[in-house]
Amino acid sequence: MRHASAPEADGPQPVAGAWDLVTVPVRQGLEAVDILRRGAAPAVGPVVHDGTCDTLGFLVPPGTAAAWDVPGSACTRTSGRGLRLPELPELPEPAGDAPRPAGWLLPPGDADPVTDPAVLREALGEAARLIEAADGCH
Questions:
Q1: CA dihedral 38, 76, 65, 116 (to 10 degrees)
Q2: Whole-angstrom distance, CA of residue 80 vs CA of residue 70
Q3: Torsion angle of alpha carbons 3, 7, 8, 12, nearest 10°?
Q4: Does this model's pTM top 0.85?
């Protein structure tokens, strides 16, 4: 997994404005990121990972949570509060069993402002089918 380093002072600005967050298990999320980046028109917005790298979070337009129904995922509403994600500083690797801090897989500025929920829904479905097929080949 690629961990993004902190941008330069004059680099990309934090994600501002309202957005919702779709969270998925990391394996399905990584497959979906690959699918979205390989498309004819790559269209994936910023993606965050949790500190334990168990889940990935895709930033999607506000209001997505009201109609989100993809099994195995969750969509958290921001209620239009205009939440602001801070840029994540470059952090040292944790020592021993210390948990890894959350960070960007795809930071703002390296990606589209948000991921289109319809495109994400298709990519997550394709990712789930690929994982099921791969697990069935053992």
A1: -20
A2: 22
A3: 160
A4: no
